[in-house]
Amino acid sequence: MTSKRRLPRRLLTTALIVLMALPAGVGVAQEQRRTLFDMLFGNERRRPESSIIQMRPRPERVRPQGAARPAAPTPVKPPAAAPQPEAVEKMDSARKILVVGDFGAMGVGQGLETAFEQDPSVKVIAKGSVASGLVRQDHYDWLSELPRMLEQEKPQIVVVMLGANDRQSMQVGAERERFRTDIWLKEYEERVTRLAKMVTDRKIPLLWVGLAAFESPSLTADAVTLNGIYRSNVEEVGGEFVDIWDGFVDESGQFIVTGSDVNGQPARLRGTDGVSFTDAGKRKLAFYVEKLAKRHLGDLSVGDLIRLDAGDLPLLSSLPPEVEAKMPSQPINLSDPELDGGKELLGASTIKPVARETPQNLLLTKGFLPDAPVGRIDNVRLNPTSP
Fold first, then answer.
1. In the beta sheet, which residues pair with residue 125?
2. Which of 84, 159, 92 is nearest to 117 (CA)?
3. At CA 134, angle to CA 130 and CA 136, rounded to 5?
4. Residue ranges under compositional bias (Pro residues) (predicted)?
């Protein structure tokens, strides 16, 4: 009986211990689950204070007393651009290149000014109207203005570039003719010829610059037609047509915005409108004209700065006495074909010519050859004499 009574008491004690331990174990698991959840989703409010890392401020380094403050790093300066040479002052007798036309001509003038800015003997004069042409004579009449410019400036070369604004109807007599009709083309050719003859009749070299390709296909097609008129009519009256087409198209003949500049480097040549030219494009326009202009101006691009005649040679009387006494004669001019009258070297009159028969002449005239020199392999004498 005693053992049966003790058994339920032991069971009751064991159950009581389990019940007392159960809430504590569940609380620990819940606390662990809450901590993992907080770690995953960053809920700092439920994290225990022991799990939060406190960031302490970094202590400042104390420099010893008397120690020098470290020098600040020297800032690296970007490489300075190469200074552009200043334009030289032009001579009073500088030869003039007159550039006339529309906005394209103004670009050619700007490029030529850059090309000849270091040459004091060449002056570029650009005159014109941006929106001018040969159609709208009511806006700007080149047939009336060009003769006045020629008389005023008296240029050595005239450069013309226009036509980009001429794609419009033209007043012919009392009628208004549409662009590219037969009457329009005939009248336009006559105006081109008249303008060109104003220059060539004065015996002035004329360089007529053709049109470049445009971004618009229709504009490009019209430019080809106008270039054909310029080439045929200008060359017929003695002018020279400057073809710039290949410089502003690709290998397939299509319009390009970016291409090679005068130095062969890639550069943007045309404006965003597909018509105008950038600074690099203007310089490239002038490059085609520059070569021909230098040919007409001559090889010496500095004009009369260097003289090769006898006027630059020093006179003997202007030399010091000690130098004059040592001079055998006056300086001679190397450009004189007679070398200032001297045909012989100094002392040539004292040299007496020595008559000497050549082996060939001896063989032909006397029938024998002279003896071979002593020591040569064909000298077969038994007792050679010493020379």
1. 98
2. 84
3. 75
4. 72-82
Instruction: Quick: pLDDT tens for 99-132.
Output: 999 999 999 999 999 999 999 999 999 998 999 9
Stated pTM of the model: 0.59
What's the half-sphere exposure (Cβ side, CA atoms, 13 Å) at 373?
Answer: 3
Q: Which CATH topology does 95-305 take?
A: Rossmann fold (3.40.50)
| pLDDT 10s digits, 42-66 | 555 555 454 444 555 565 666 666 6
Q: What token pair was written down for 99?
A: 């550039």
Domain boundary assignment for the chain: 95-305
- The first and second tokens of residue 277, run together, are 């030219």
Q: Rounded to an integer, what distance in angstroms lies between the CA atom of residue 11 and that of residue 16?
A: 9
Beta pairing partners, 176: 171
Whether 373 and 347 have beta carbons less than 8 Å apart is answered as no
CA atoms within 13 A on the CB side of 187: 20
Task: Order the strands of the 206-209 sheet from edge to edge.
Answer: 122-128, 95-101, 157-161, 206-209, 240-242
In DSSP notation, 5-22 reads HHHHHHHHHHHHHHHHHH
